[in-house]
Design a protein that fits this description.
265 residues; alpha/beta; Rossmann fold; 9 helices; 6 strands; globular
């Protein structure tokens, strides 16, 4: 189920889906410019996963996570906590009554696709064998790829007559370090388009590094304050933050988004 995150094919399917979303009024010109990068379509396509024709659900919830795999996670001793947190989200969703309508996508912060969109029982768990936090923090570049994937998959379901709600979590323990294409404003344009549709939640977790003002970073990316988590740099606080996210994801499967006002943290 996993792949190397470098894309498959030439990304034409992903590009076509995003163009259809633009025509439907879901994406602005500013957002399309941010998504119009030569190899972005291939990166997005790498995460699309399951064929919607194989899905029997009348509506779906797409739960998407982007765990940080930068070297600072490892140096702070938090690899295990991030793995456990990701996996406990899968466990919590699996125990929910609507688990059969949930599809999960996990892409690491540096682009490796652990699980393209798949049913919960096909989601790959994070382990010490498939997760090594030893890279940089291209936060803006990869958030644009991640959200582009969310939008493309939601559009693919919509075209098949299956309404999709999405809940996305971005995890980092530092500000942007290594983006070469996108800025915070590019992410903010994309997040703004998603929030206007009222069927997307975009959330972020900033694990305390002692210096970064994560609320400032995430606000600059367009993420509402109520959807920002700022756990301390301890395993217990990181795991608790993932539990808070999983509760919101479960709520999205049970009662739509009307009851989701933000994190209760």
């Amino acid at each position: 189920m996993s792949n190397n995150g470098n894309g498959n094919g030439n990304g034409k399917k992903a590009q076509a889906l995003l163009e259809e979303a633009r025509k439907a009024g879901a994406l602005s010109t500013t957002t399309m410019k941010a998504l119009d990068v030569v190899d972005l379509g291939a990166q997005i396509q790498a995460g699309l996963g399951v064929d919607v024709d194989d899905v029997a659900s009348s509506e779906v919830v797409l739960v998407t996570m982007m765990p940080d795999d930068s070297g600072s996670i490892s140096s702070a001793g938090n690899e295990e906590a991030v793995r456990d947190g990701h996996n406990q989200v899968l466990d919590a969703l699996g125990a929910s009554k609507q688990s059969g309508d949930v599809f999960v996508h996990t892409r690491y912060l540096n682009g490796h696709v652990l699980t393209p969109y798949a049913p919960l029982d096909g989601a790959v768990r994070m382990t010490s064998a498939n997760y090594h936090a030893d890279k940089g923090t291209p936060l803006y570049d990869q958030t644009v790829v991640l959200l582009g994937t969310v939008l493309a998959k939601a559009q693919e379901f919509a075209q098949a007559g299956v309404p999709a709600r999405t809940v996305t979590l971005i995890i980092t323990d530092g500000g942007d370090w290594g983006s070469t294409r996108c800025k915070a404003a590019d992410v903010a344009a994309l997040v703004g388009d998603m929030l206007r549709q009222e069927n997307h939640v975009v959330a972020a977790m900033g694990i305390n590094d002692g210096t970064t003002d994560f609320r400032k970073v995430f606000r600059s990316m367009g993420i509402p304050d109520r959807w920002i988590l700022t756990p301390g740099n301890t395993a217990s606080e990181i795991r608790r933050a993932f539990r808070v996210f999983s509760q919101s994801a479960i709520s999205a499967t049970q009662g739509g988004f009307a009851t989701l006002g933000g994190f209760a943290n």
